[in-house]
TrEMBL record:
Organism of derivation: Streptomyces colonosanans
Coiled-coil residue windows: none
Segments of this protein annotated with the region Disordered: 1-33
Phylogenetic classification of the source organism: Bacteria, Bacillati, Actinomycetota, Actinomycetes, Kitasatosporales
Record protein name field: peptidyl-tRNA hydrolase
Catalytic activity: an N-acyl-L-alpha-aminoacyl-tRNA + H2O = an N-acyl-L-amino acid + a tRNA + H(+)
Amino acid sequence: MSSDQTPTASAGSPQGSQDSTSRSERTAPDEAPQFVLPLVVRIERAAPPARTDALETAARAVLAILSDERSLGEGEWAQAIRDWQDTRIRKVVRRARGAEWRRAEALPGITVMGKSAEVRVFPPVPLDSWPKDLARLQVSGTDLDDPEPPMEADPATPVLWLNPGLEMSAGKAMAQAGHGAQLARWALPDEERASWRDAGFTLAVRTADPPHWRELTASGLPLVRDAGYTEIAPGSCTVVADHPALRD
Protein backbone atom coordinates (compact mmCIF):
# COMPACT_ATOMS: atom_id res chain seq x y z
CA MET A 1 0.00 0.00 0.00
CA SER A 2 1.58 3.28 -0.97
CA SER A 3 0.99 6.93 -1.48
CA ASP A 4 3.57 9.41 -2.62
CA GLN A 5 3.13 13.16 -2.54
CA THR A 6 -0.22 13.95 -4.08
CA PRO A 7 -0.35 17.70 -4.62
CA THR A 8 -3.44 19.57 -5.63
CA ALA A 9 -3.72 23.32 -5.92
CA SER A 10 -3.00 25.90 -3.28
CA ALA A 11 -5.62 26.67 -0.69
CA GLY A 12 -6.83 29.82 -2.35
CA SER A 13 -10.22 28.60 -3.52
CA PRO A 14 -12.68 27.68 -0.79
CA GLN A 15 -14.99 25.66 -2.98
CA GLY A 16 -15.57 24.11 -6.36
CA SER A 17 -12.90 22.45 -8.44
CA GLN A 18 -9.36 22.40 -7.09
CA ASP A 19 -7.16 22.36 -10.13
CA SER A 20 -3.51 21.40 -10.15
CA THR A 21 -0.69 22.03 -12.55
CA SER A 22 1.87 19.63 -13.91
CA ARG A 23 5.41 19.77 -12.63
CA SER A 24 6.57 21.68 -15.71
CA GLU A 25 4.27 24.63 -14.97
CA ARG A 26 5.67 26.72 -12.14
CA THR A 27 3.26 29.01 -10.31
CA ALA A 28 3.42 31.05 -7.10
CA PRO A 29 2.56 28.10 -4.84
CA ASP A 30 5.49 26.18 -6.37
CA GLU A 31 7.97 28.91 -5.49
CA ALA A 32 7.05 29.04 -1.79
CA PRO A 33 8.61 26.60 0.73
CA GLN A 34 6.77 23.31 0.38
CA PHE A 35 4.99 21.53 3.23
CA VAL A 36 3.29 18.16 3.48
CA LEU A 37 0.63 16.68 5.77
CA PRO A 38 1.85 13.27 7.01
CA LEU A 39 -0.60 10.44 7.64
CA VAL A 40 0.38 7.03 8.95
CA VAL A 41 -1.89 4.01 8.66
CA ARG A 42 -1.42 1.09 11.01
CA ILE A 43 -1.05 -2.16 9.09
CA GLU A 44 -0.25 -5.17 11.23
CA ARG A 45 0.60 -8.36 9.35
CA ALA A 46 -2.05 -10.40 11.12
CA ALA A 47 -4.90 -7.91 10.81
CA PRO A 48 -4.62 -5.34 8.01
CA PRO A 49 -7.52 -2.89 7.75
CA ALA A 50 -10.14 -3.06 5.02
CA ARG A 51 -9.37 -0.76 2.12
CA THR A 52 -12.57 1.30 2.19
CA ASP A 53 -12.39 1.71 5.96
CA ALA A 54 -8.79 2.93 5.63
CA LEU A 55 -9.84 5.50 3.03
CA GLU A 56 -12.72 6.76 5.14
CA THR A 57 -10.58 6.90 8.28
CA ALA A 58 -7.87 8.87 6.48
CA ALA A 59 -10.44 11.38 5.24
CA ARG A 60 -11.81 11.83 8.76
CA ALA A 61 -8.27 12.23 10.10
CA VAL A 62 -7.67 15.15 7.74
CA LEU A 63 -10.92 16.78 8.89
CA ALA A 64 -10.00 16.14 12.52
CA ILE A 65 -6.69 17.99 12.36
CA LEU A 66 -8.14 20.87 10.37
CA SER A 67 -10.84 21.32 13.03
CA ASP A 68 -8.66 20.79 16.08
CA GLU A 69 -8.27 23.84 18.33
CA ARG A 70 -4.49 23.49 18.02
CA SER A 71 -4.82 24.16 14.27
CA LEU A 72 -6.99 27.28 14.65
CA GLY A 73 -6.27 30.88 15.57
CA GLU A 74 -3.09 31.04 17.62
CA GLY A 75 -2.98 27.30 18.32
CA GLU A 76 0.36 25.50 18.39
CA TRP A 77 -0.22 23.91 14.96
CA ALA A 78 -1.94 26.90 13.34
CA GLN A 79 1.12 28.40 11.64
CA ALA A 80 2.13 25.04 10.20
CA ILE A 81 -1.40 24.57 8.84
CA ARG A 82 -1.33 28.05 7.26
CA ASP A 83 2.10 27.48 5.72
CA TRP A 84 0.91 24.18 4.27
CA GLN A 85 -2.33 25.57 2.87
CA ASP A 86 -0.53 28.51 1.26
CA THR A 87 1.38 26.17 -1.03
CA ARG A 88 0.26 22.98 -2.74
CA ILE A 89 -1.93 20.75 -0.61
CA ARG A 90 0.28 17.69 -0.30
CA LYS A 91 -0.51 14.63 1.75
CA VAL A 92 1.71 11.58 2.14
CA VAL A 93 0.49 8.29 3.56
CA ARG A 94 3.01 5.90 5.11
CA ARG A 95 2.49 2.60 6.89
CA ALA A 96 3.63 1.35 10.28
CA ARG A 97 3.31 -1.70 12.48
CA GLY A 98 4.47 -2.77 15.91
CA ALA A 99 7.24 -0.61 17.34
CA GLU A 100 7.06 1.70 14.31
CA TRP A 101 3.45 2.49 15.13
CA ARG A 102 4.24 3.05 18.81
CA ARG A 103 6.99 5.53 17.89
CA ALA A 104 4.62 7.33 15.53
CA GLU A 105 1.96 7.52 18.26
CA ALA A 106 4.47 9.21 20.55
CA LEU A 107 4.77 12.19 18.17
CA PRO A 108 2.29 15.10 18.34
CA GLY A 109 -0.76 14.27 16.24
CA ILE A 110 -4.25 12.79 16.26
CA THR A 111 -5.20 9.13 15.91
CA VAL A 112 -8.56 8.41 14.28
CA MET A 113 -10.16 4.99 14.57
CA GLY A 114 -12.35 3.32 11.97
CA LYS A 115 -14.01 -0.07 12.09
CA SER A 116 -10.75 -1.84 11.34
CA ALA A 117 -8.38 1.01 10.51
CA GLU A 118 -6.21 3.32 12.61
CA VAL A 119 -4.77 6.42 11.01
CA ARG A 120 -2.62 9.01 12.76
CA VAL A 121 -2.32 12.47 11.23
CA PHE A 122 0.42 14.93 12.12
CA PRO A 123 0.87 18.69 11.78
CA PRO A 124 2.37 19.66 8.40
CA VAL A 125 6.15 19.45 8.06
CA PRO A 126 8.58 20.83 5.47
CA LEU A 127 8.74 18.56 2.46
CA ASP A 128 12.44 17.85 2.98
CA SER A 129 12.49 17.78 6.80
CA TRP A 130 10.38 14.96 8.21
CA PRO A 131 10.72 13.78 11.83
CA LYS A 132 13.07 10.81 11.70
CA ASP A 133 10.51 8.37 13.12
CA LEU A 134 8.16 9.23 10.23
CA ALA A 135 10.81 9.57 7.53
CA ARG A 136 11.96 5.98 8.03
CA LEU A 137 8.46 4.57 7.46
CA GLN A 138 7.76 2.97 4.09
CA VAL A 139 5.44 4.50 1.54
CA SER A 140 5.01 1.36 -0.53
CA GLY A 141 4.73 -2.36 -0.03
CA THR A 142 1.25 -3.34 1.07
CA ASP A 143 -2.06 -3.44 -0.78
CA LEU A 144 -5.38 -3.37 1.03
CA ASP A 145 -8.57 -5.14 0.02
CA ASP A 146 -12.20 -5.13 1.08
CA PRO A 147 -13.27 -8.56 2.38
CA GLU A 148 -16.78 -7.75 1.16
CA PRO A 149 -18.07 -5.10 -1.26
CA PRO A 150 -18.95 -1.87 0.59
CA MET A 151 -22.64 -1.29 1.25
CA GLU A 152 -24.46 1.35 -0.75
CA ALA A 153 -23.96 4.77 0.82
CA ASP A 154 -26.85 6.45 2.61
CA PRO A 155 -28.06 9.47 0.55
CA ALA A 156 -27.95 11.58 3.73
CA THR A 157 -24.25 10.79 4.27
CA PRO A 158 -21.46 12.84 2.66
CA VAL A 159 -19.80 10.68 0.01
CA LEU A 160 -16.34 11.03 -1.50
CA TRP A 161 -16.74 9.51 -4.95
CA LEU A 162 -13.65 7.98 -6.57
CA ASN A 163 -13.05 8.05 -10.32
CA PRO A 164 -13.93 4.57 -11.67
CA GLY A 165 -11.43 4.96 -14.51
CA LEU A 166 -8.33 5.28 -12.33
CA GLU A 167 -6.26 2.59 -10.67
CA MET A 168 -4.78 3.90 -7.43
CA SER A 169 -2.89 2.20 -4.63
CA ALA A 170 -4.57 2.29 -1.23
CA GLY A 171 -2.20 4.99 -0.01
CA LYS A 172 -2.75 7.17 -3.03
CA ALA A 173 -6.52 6.77 -2.69
CA MET A 174 -6.31 7.61 1.03
CA ALA A 175 -4.54 10.87 0.23
CA GLN A 176 -7.06 11.70 -2.51
CA ALA A 177 -9.97 11.01 -0.15
CA GLY A 178 -8.32 13.40 2.29
CA HIS A 179 -8.16 16.05 -0.43
CA GLY A 180 -11.84 15.58 -1.17
CA ALA A 181 -12.83 15.86 2.48
CA GLN A 182 -10.77 19.02 2.82
CA LEU A 183 -12.45 20.62 -0.20
CA ALA A 184 -15.88 19.75 1.15
CA ARG A 185 -15.03 21.34 4.48
CA TRP A 186 -13.81 24.51 2.78
CA ALA A 187 -16.99 24.76 0.73
CA LEU A 188 -19.44 24.37 3.61
CA PRO A 189 -21.03 27.31 5.42
CA ASP A 190 -19.84 27.67 9.01
CA GLU A 191 -23.03 26.21 10.48
CA GLU A 192 -22.90 23.11 8.28
CA ARG A 193 -19.20 22.70 8.97
CA ALA A 194 -19.86 22.74 12.71
CA SER A 195 -22.72 20.24 12.33
CA TRP A 196 -20.45 17.87 10.41
CA ARG A 197 -17.81 18.15 13.11
CA ASP A 198 -20.35 17.52 15.86
CA ALA A 199 -21.51 14.40 13.99
CA GLY A 200 -17.96 13.03 14.05
CA PHE A 201 -17.35 13.78 10.36
CA THR A 202 -19.47 10.88 9.18
CA LEU A 203 -18.70 10.09 5.56
CA ALA A 204 -18.40 7.31 3.03
CA VAL A 205 -15.90 6.64 0.26
CA ARG A 206 -17.24 4.83 -2.77
CA THR A 207 -16.27 4.31 -6.41
CA ALA A 208 -18.82 5.84 -8.76
CA ASP A 209 -20.09 3.96 -11.79
CA PRO A 210 -19.14 5.67 -15.09
CA PRO A 211 -22.50 7.37 -15.83
CA HIS A 212 -22.73 8.69 -12.27
CA TRP A 213 -19.12 9.90 -12.43
CA ARG A 214 -19.88 11.95 -15.54
CA GLU A 215 -22.82 13.55 -13.73
CA LEU A 216 -20.74 14.25 -10.65
CA THR A 217 -17.93 15.98 -12.54
CA ALA A 218 -20.47 18.29 -14.20
CA SER A 219 -22.40 19.00 -11.00
CA GLY A 220 -20.33 21.83 -9.58
CA LEU A 221 -19.49 19.85 -6.45
CA PRO A 222 -15.89 20.11 -5.15
CA LEU A 223 -13.58 18.23 -7.50
CA VAL A 224 -10.01 17.12 -6.87
CA ARG A 225 -7.54 17.21 -9.75
CA ASP A 226 -4.20 15.53 -9.19
CA ALA A 227 -0.93 17.20 -10.15
CA GLY A 228 0.49 13.95 -11.48
CA TYR A 229 3.51 13.56 -9.22
CA THR A 230 2.79 9.86 -8.67
CA GLU A 231 0.75 7.03 -10.19
CA ILE A 232 -1.65 8.97 -12.41
CA ALA A 233 -1.48 11.58 -15.17
CA PRO A 234 -1.40 15.32 -14.36
CA GLY A 235 -4.85 16.88 -14.25
CA SER A 236 -6.66 13.60 -13.57
CA CYS A 237 -9.93 14.06 -11.71
CA THR A 238 -9.75 11.74 -8.73
CA VAL A 239 -12.53 12.56 -6.25
CA VAL A 240 -15.83 14.44 -6.15
CA ALA A 241 -16.95 15.53 -2.67
CA ASP A 242 -20.71 15.04 -2.50
CA HIS A 243 -21.89 16.59 0.77
CA PRO A 244 -25.69 16.90 1.05
CA ALA A 245 -25.37 20.56 2.08
CA LEU A 246 -23.53 21.34 -1.19
CA ARG A 247 -26.04 19.77 -3.54
CA ASP A 248 -28.19 22.09 -5.65
